[in-house]
Structure formats: C-alpha cells, structure tokens
Amino acid sequence: MLDRVQSKSMLHEMRTLQRKRRVEEVDWVDAIYRAYVILVLSLIGVLVVSAIVGDGHVGHATVADIERNGAPILSIGLAFVIAGALRSGSRGGPHSLQPADVHHLLLAPLERDLVLRGPAIRQLRVIAVSSTVLGAIAGNLALRRLPGGGASWVLYGAAFGACAGLAMWGAAAMASGHRLSRVAASLAGLGLIAWAGLDLAVHVTTAPTTWISAIAILPLRTQYVAVVGPIVALAAAIAGFIAIGGISIEATLRRSGLVGQLRFAATVQDLRVVILLHRQLASELPRRKPWIRHRAHGSLAPVWRRDWSAIMRWPASRVLRVIVLGGIAIAAAIGAWLGTTPLIVVAGIAAFVAALDVSEGLAQEVDHPTLVDARPVSPGWLYARHLAAPVAVLAVIAAVPLGVLALSGHASTTVSVAAATAITAIVGTIAGASLSIVLGPPPLGSPFLMSFPEIMGTLLIARQAVAPGLAIAGFLPIAFAVHALHSGHPVVDAANATIGPVLIASGIAIGYIGSRGAKRY
Amino acid sequence: MKPTRQHALVATGLTKNYDDVVALHDFSATIDEGELVTLVGHNGSGKSTLLGIVSGVLEPTSGNVIVAGAAPGSLEARAAVSYVPDNPVLYDDLSVWEHIAYIAALHGTVGWEDRAPKLLEQLGLWERVDDLPSRFSRGLRQKTMLAVGLIRPFSLLLVDEPFVGLDPSGQAAIVDLMLEAVEAGATVLASTHQQTLLAHATRCIGLRDGETVFDGPAGSKEAAQLLSADLGGSGTAPD
Description:
Strand content of chain A: under 5%
Oligomer: heterodimer
Radius of gyration of chain A: 25 Å
Largest sheet of chain B: 6 strands, mixed
CATH superfamily of chain B: P-loop containing nucleotide triphosphate hydrolases
CATH topology of chain B: Rossmann fold
Radius of gyration of chain B: 17 Å
Structural class of chain B: alpha/beta
Order of helices and strands of chain A: HHHHHHHHHHHHHHHHHHHHHHHH
Number of helices of chain A: 24
Shape of chain B: globular
Number of domains of chain B: 1
Largest interface: A-B, 29 and 30 residues
CATH architecture of chain B: 3-Layer(aba) Sandwich
Strand order of the largest sheet of chain B: 5-6-7-3-8-9
C-alpha cells in the first residue's frame, strides 16, 4: 500500500494530467460564448431584481423594523438553507465526484480524506465565490433603499454571503461525513429553523444562523454577535473537512451518477430530465400507499382518474413544494397589487415551476412514447386530457386567497381583480408548463435551425422563453389593474380586458399540444 | 464464525433492503482462499447486491461480512479486493494504458509495466492501448474494466456478469484470466448466467429473490439445473 505522501503525489500527478487533457479539449470559442451568455443573463437578472426592489428610500418605520427584525428574519431563511444542506448531506451531498473516481479512488487502498480533499476544496471555492458575489449584489440592491454607507452594504453583504456559503457547505459535509440519517438530518434542520424562529419571537440573538445574519445588517445596526458569525461559518466548514473521509460510498456512488446526468441535462436544457433527476437526488419516490385509498371502477374519464391516482401518491415533500411554490406565487401577486408590479415575474415563475410538478401525468405520457403509441387514440388527444387534473389542483390553491379575500370583506375591486388573475394564471400556467413538457429540449438537428444558423440562438431562447412567458402572462391582469389605478381608469375593466388575450394565447398553446404526435427520442 | 487466514470471505446473516424491497435476505457463507465461486440466479436475485456489499460499495441493512480478515471498505479490504462491476466505470479522459498506469500506481503495483502488455494482448486490447475507452463498444469497455481490475494486486476478485457484450474468444480469455488468478492463490467470486465459467468453478451459490437456494459443488447436477432454470427463468427487478 502507498503511504500518504506517495498517495498524495500520485493523485496530484494524475489530476494534473486530467486537467491538462480537459484544457486541451476545451473549445475556447464555445467557452467564451457560454461566458458571454451567462454574463448577459446575470445582468438581466440583476436588472429585473433591481426593478423589483426599486430605488425609492424606505420610510423610518420600515428602517426601524429592518433594524429590529432583519437579522432574525434572514436567520430563518439561512436556517432553511442549512436544513436543506443537512438533508442533502444525509444523501451523500455536497460531494459530486465522477463515478470513475468513486470506483477507482475511493475503493483503492488510499486514505479517503486525501482523495476527497482536492475536489472538496474546488467545490467550496466555487460556493464561496458565488455566494460572496450574490451577497454583494444583494448589498448593492439594499444600499439603494436603505440608509448607511454604500460600500458597507456591499462589503457586509459579501461577507454574509461568504459565511452563509461556508456554513451551508460545512453542514452538508458534516452530515455526510458523520452519515447522519435522513430523520436525524431533518430533525437537526427543523431544530435550527425553530431556534432561528425563537430568536425572532423573543428578540434575542442566540442562534448561530442569527450570528451570521447579523453581519448583513451591520450597516444599520451594530451587533457584537456578528463577530462570532464568521467564526461559526469557518468552524462549520473545517468540521466538514475533518469529517470528509467518513462518507458513505453507496450514497456517493448513487449521487455521482445522478449529478453527472443532471449536468448533462442542464447543458442540453432538458428541463424534464432536470426535474426527474432532482427528484431522484432527493430520493423522492411516489408513496406506496396513496393518501386516500380508492379503487377505480368503470371506464369514464380514464385520464382524469389516472392523474388523480398519481396525485394521491405524491410524497409529502412534493405536496409541500407545490404548496410553498403556490404560496410564493400568491405572495408575489399580492406584492405586485400593492405596487411592486415586476413581482408578477416572480409569481409567474413560481407558478410555472409548481405547474411542472403538478403536470406529472402528461410528463409521464411524453416520457413513454411507446406506451402512447400502443393506445387507440392520438397522442394529442391523450395529452390534452391530461391538462384537466393540474387545472383542478391549481384551482384549489387559487381558491384559498380568493376565499380569504371574499370572506374578509375586501373591496369588490380587489376581489374582481383577484378573480380575473386566478382565471388567467391557472390557464396560462398550465398551458405554459404543458408546452414546456411537450416541447422538451431543443431539437438540435432541426433542419430549420440548421439552415439558419445566424438566428439559431434567438430561436432557441424564444423557444425556451415562451412557456414560462405564458405563465407570467397569466398574472398580467394585476399589472394592467395597477396601471389603471394609477392613471385613473376603471380598474376591473383593465383587468378583465387581459383575460381574452391570455386565454387565446393559452388556447393556441393547448391546441398545439392537442395536435402533437408521440415524442421520439 | 471467526475468520481465519484461510477464509477469503465470511458472511453472516447479510440482508440488504431498498426501502421495502428485499434485495438480499439473511445470506451466510464462508469462502476459502483459492476457490472459484460462481453466483447464479435470475435478474433481481441479489447477485450484484451481494458483490456490492462485499466490495464495500453497498452497505448491508443488517448482518456482517469479513473480507480478507477486514471489514469491507476498510483500507486492508480495499487493498485485497478487486471489484469489476457489471457496468464498466471508466474515466472519459484517460486512455486504456493511462487507466492501467493510474490504477496500478494507486495500488503500489510492482512490475505492472511488464505484465500489462500480456494482459492487454490476452484481452485483445493491445492494438487499442492508446485509445479512449469512452469511445469503445460495450464489450471493449468491459474488457478494459477487467484489465483494470486484474492489473492490480488482489486476493479476492469480484466480477459481476463478466461476459456481457463479449464474443466467444473474449469470454474464453476471461475464463483463462480468472483461472490464472486462482492458480496464483486468489479467490474469485463471479456472478454469471454462462455455462462457460460454471464448468471451471469449484463451487456454485444459487440465489433466488434474495435467498440462498443452493450452495455446493459447481459440477453437481443441482448447479447445472439451477443455471438452466436461471437461463429460462424470469425476473423483473434489476439486481
């Protein structure tokens, strides 16, 4: 067997060779183009977020509120992120080795920490840099609306981001290194969230996540616990490194295969495969026993009944995800109605992602073209009938805020705008999500795209944007109503005027879905 | 049973569950050094699961296993066990020779440069030694994986379905290599659906739905019947 020094030198030599080979194989034009696309998309993202945040300074009361509750609220958010990291760690995260490394290196007689340290440092570097950049961007957005030195918001935002990234990685690495069970990881995560919630409720700063979050609020309020934040984050990362050799090979191997596929699917923009692999990574399986037991009889509405059978087998995590995404969409829609109109983008995207989850029945048909072919109906006929159950699910979610508004005696204008939005949002979102599922990844071999290479990029972007665009369009009644409110026009009429165009656009998409043949891979 | 130096593998009450699916149930066996043992059984019978547990890739739900006197996955076991899975796992960016060089060096193999040409020649890979296995057919990738598994020192060779995708000459070469390993004092535990290997094995273990249904001489009538039932049998779940 090799000793540590020999193993280290051996690994270094081979990784240098692999790196050299990868660099040789890089298509630099392609790499520069990708960097350019990422830069453009990042700028668009920053601009959209800037538009949502706005430039006007907030009032004294809001500043006082942020001063008092900003750190604990951020702390709860961070606790949720760390809880997710702990869950990921219990399934082998955050490590994402290639399968060959798991087989040949982790099964070789080498100290495992030695094998894992290099990839872990690279991973941590990426996480630290990206979370620092995100923190700095958030700080930059905060300085537009909040008092305090401009540079300090950016600086402390970056520091908070870096600490959050370190803590997140460290939590996941500790959980995998100590082979925390899923139950233990979930309990630890829930404990952290509860601790952060307690800090908010009783106005104390006892949770480690609050110490880290206090860094972000330093331009407004000096809290000495902020000094402890970086120490906690660093300690978490170091503890993760110390535990690194204890990982489960079974979990790492399973994860390495899935992460590789996930990267490929993301590269070819195959949203459906990304969703499926994400579910596998999260070990999200349909329930063996449905939530409500029933046995189908008769032959009426088979597609509708098949979809409900599948919905009844949703695991709790998917139920929760759909509810949370629905909640985000509703909250963003309320925010848009209260004046931050660009929030309809957030509402549309949240609803779109929820609809992708809800439209699983359709996705299953698209995934199994041979089964579709074996049925005595056209694929389009079948696909179109799969839209009914998702519409019903979203209608149930939308009925909650509508009912609350109606029962709480809100003005009839608000209720009317909400009702108009509910109709267009449900139809637009389901049409968009279904279109995305049926379209699948861009067909790179399409003769049309091949014959006009100059416009290929634009066409591909348009193709990918049209589906979420429909979902966002579903929230347009709010934007038009807000505009009418400010310009003194009839608000309800403005909202209702958008129903027709949105339904027509959605109808075209649904018509297209209904005319499809079976998808071929 | 307390392991001794003569035991390559001692398994006691090994069970592996995947959620509510029992892949292997209460498997117990002792395999001595120098044995060539074939594992037979239909798809989903638990062969790959057993090999995965012994190699340290999978963790048993319950039970114990000692490999070459150590726990699977420990440094000692990793030095002793060479595992060739049914699905070849190779680097995309290394040639056949670079794979061999890498794995041999990782295991501190002495004199691998002299053995490698003969090994690759036997497997019919010598002409492709500088090619990337990522561009190979399934059969050639399988041969590369076997070469990688055989170039390093081992006392227990675990091979999962070694003949998949191989032509008859490739199958014969692999049987010869396994017999050479046994002659050199190693133990071989191979899962197979092929008669080719059973004829040379010293022992056969039959699995069905995770349960041991046979453990005896490979040349016995029962072993042959088991293999023919396996070839004609059914099974839906993957191993």
